[in-house]
Amino acid sequence: MDAFVSFHPPATASHEAALLDTLRARAPRIVHRAPEAGDDARFHPLLIGGRSWRLARPTTFTPYASSRPCSARCAFCSENLRTERGGVPAARLRPDGGYFAGLGRALAALRGVPLSWSLSGLENTDDPAWLLRLLDTLRAAERDGVVIEDRVLYSNGAGFAHAQGAVLRDALLRFGLGWIELSRHHHDGATNQALMRFRAGEPIAVQAVFERVLATLAGAFPVRLVCLLQQGGVRTPHDVAAYLAWARAHGAGTVIFREFSQLDDSYRDNATARHLQAARVPMAPLLQACLADTPTSAGWLIESLTEGYYFWNLRLRTGDGLQVVFERSDYAAMHRRHASGDVYKLVYFANGELCAGWEPGHEVLLDTRSPEPAHG
After folding, report:
1. Which residues on adjacent β-strands are paired with residue 323?
2. What does the pLDDT read at residue 376?
3. Per the domain annotation, does 170 fall within a domain?
4. Digit-coded pLDDT (tens) for 307-342
5. Does 22 reside within a domain?
6. Closest alpha carbon to 287 in 104, 1, 22, 2
7. pTM recorded for the entire structure
8. Using the 8-state DSSP alphabet, how is residue 80 labeled?
9. 172-180: average pLDDT
10. E-strand spans in the chain?
11. Which domain, by its residues, includes 332?
């Protein structure tokens, strides 16, 4: 690992490009998660819906959670973005009585495919009965030959603060969950509530309740706290240092600071897109400022730089062992990958469609509600 000693970041308009060049030279390990098009060993062949595809490894599978509206109403939520292509957004679809049969059919078509479970969408824990049945369905698929490498849950923690929280935690333990990415966008409870806007009556909005949930989960799984950088929230080196001190005191093993994803012109000009533009805190200059600020970054060591198919992140380790990640993503790059003809992401939606992306009705690999048999 390499320490940042006397690091002087560039102060140009091309912060990100200059910073990435510096990090590539300094990082002891660079992870390339996106395979080159000609690297056949990094792709897995799949015949599904009567057509042949190549799945880029690693590929994650998301059974998109949308059984209930989310317990939070974050103004920056990407699930409220709308593209010019149109169609019914995933967040507005609700599973019907045939949902789990369709999911089973999609999973049967993926037997032998190396995947990772990535449980996200709206908030999985808002509907405990749905989540418990989902976990049973995914475990059955593993017994039936679906090959799983990792299991991760993305959550705002709301369901863990209700009566069935312990039931959900124990079910996730049996499921073999690898880690939880738990969203909390400020270390002060009132400030966080102004950002996440949990609905009335949600206990998780209360800081002491969240901290109890965090401690309980951290006793069962590795917990990665996720903080989206934004105006009105974490945006300075001082804010970063304060968040890390709070996270360390309450049992988190990792903190991830993320910039709002960079949008392209395929997105409509709606309230969410305008908010993302107005409240954005660019990650690269903030990271540079943190690295140049000794009180914030003293003792930080570089572990790795990851370059993904539409994101990059820097992983560091503090002197007392807390992992710190700074991450940026670009939806234009994501869309280019999804349009390449290769599959980088699998999402199963409440309408029964298995898609190679985040929009129902587009890049559909299999419609489980159709009579056409699945091929795998």
Report:
1. 254, 317
2. 37
3. yes
4. 999 999 999 999 999 999 999 999 999 999 998 999
5. yes
6. 22
7. 0.93
8. G
9. 98
10. 2-3, 30-32, 43-48, 51-63, 114-119, 147-155, 179-183, 223-228, 254-258, 301-307, 311-317, 323-329, 343-348, 353-355, 364-367
11. 14-367
How does DSSP classify residue 87?
Answer: S
Best CA proximity match to 280, nearest among 264, 311, 310, 259: 259
Token reading at 286: 């903030």
CB 123 within 8 A of CB 159: yes
Instruction: Please give the single-letter amino acid code of residue 286.
Output: L
Rounded to whole angstroms, the Cα distance separating 370 from 117 reads: 25
> Residue 299 carries which side chain, given as an amino acid letter?
G
CB 246 within 8 A of CB 195: no
The answer to the question of residue 8 being in a domain is no
Across the range 165-172, mean pLDDT stands at: 98
CATH of the domain at 83: 3.80.30.10
Query: 4 in a domain, yes or no?
Result: no
Per-residue confidence band for 10, with pLDDT thresholds at 50, 70 and 90: very low
How many structural domains does the chain have?
A: 1
Task: Report the percentage of the chain scoring pLDDT > 70.
Answer: 95
